[in-house]
Description:
2 copies of one chain form a homodimer. By secondary structure, chain A is of the alpha/beta class. Chain A has 2 domains: 6-54, RecR Domain 1 (Helicase, Ruva Protein, domain 3, Orthogonal Bundle); 64-193, Dna Topoisomerase Vi A Subunit, Chain: A, domain 2, CATH 3.40.1360. Helix content of chain A is 44%, strand content 13%. In chain A, the strands form 2 sheets. Chain A has a 4-stranded parallel sheet. A two-stranded antiparallel ribbon of chain A has the order 1-2. Chains A and B meet through helix 1, helix 2, helix 3, strand 2 and helix 4 of A and helix 1, helix 2, helix 3, strand 2 and helix 4 of B.
Amino acid sequence: MAYNIAPLNELIAQFERLPGIGKKTAQRLALNIIEQPAERAKKFAEALINAKEKIHFCKCCQALTDDELCSICASTERDRSVICVVSEPKDVMAFERTREFSGTYHVLHGVISPLDGIGPDQLRIKELMARLSDENIKEIIMATNPTVEGEATASYLSRMIKPLGIKVTRLAYGIPVGADLEYADDFTLARALEGRNEI
Amino acid sequence: MAYNIAPLNELIAQFERLPGIGKKTAQRLALNIIEQPAERAKKFAEALINAKEKIHFCKCCQALTDDELCSICASTERDRSVICVVSEPKDVMAFERTREFSGTYHVLHGVISPLDGIGPDQLRIKELMARLSDENIKEIIMATNPTVEGEATASYLSRMIKPLGIKVTRLAYGIPVGADLEYADDFTLARALEGRNEI
Lengths: 199, 199
């Protein structure tokens, strides 16, 4: 008879469904939960339920929040005339970590990808266009990923927004800070050359 | 005002407390939970609570089980005269994966480690000795890790068990299957030479 513990197998399976977690790691994590006091498993379970129940999309920018408006949209210190358009909620966190941006965001929740059956209607573009007509917007920064789909989405949106007389910009391409030129790919290097700045 | 979502931060913190999970991975896992249907978070939470509530140590071998006896101790097909002594529950799983062992196990739940304040009394040695007097045991296989503490524990136990007239064996040392001799350390190579077998 095989050595089988149903509740442990179920916990391992749950860990294994997380992205980037393989069978061995899932087993290690599940055993760690078993080894710790029951209080730990309880808190973890509560955090899971709580996060899923309380977090939804900001009414304005579609970023994650546990309130009606996210703390950025609700803040009086942010510049509402600049909107940085990103594809995923985690991109908002990435920009916020830089502490360099004082405008607001708009999260599309995806990019246009015909191969995956994702067209403009599946993205939060309606909500963005509504903001453009309501608020006094000066600049839209396209901050989708530098992939084929990200580019297509950025150019689709810019074609919609430019006729409204709003400035549309795109993140700069170039060599990553701290990288070695030798390992930069040809396209990146060509773009870095093209976008060179006077020093 | 910083971008802060308390329930998300709490979930990230819970993931971050798992072994080998850093800040970025924890964030990725937490966001994955947020993106999935609520049913997923609920099942995960239930699995955590369930595993912690139902799993305890086998009355006989101290391995993990959700029953009074683990499926190995409860099985009528296992050879009860051979006990493989391991330090952690996960070691039982490792041996079971090989499908090469038909005896039973005993989990010590640690190794003797004076530096960490762990002496023989903190391990499940009492329970092992009780089994030796009750059952008709022919061989004890010491399968603690090949570390200083694992060796010390194995030799401590063998000094206790040998006087009872029971054969005590230790896992073979040698080169791992598929490894390159060039990268084997000196001690391992010396032990592999010492333990050579006729072919």
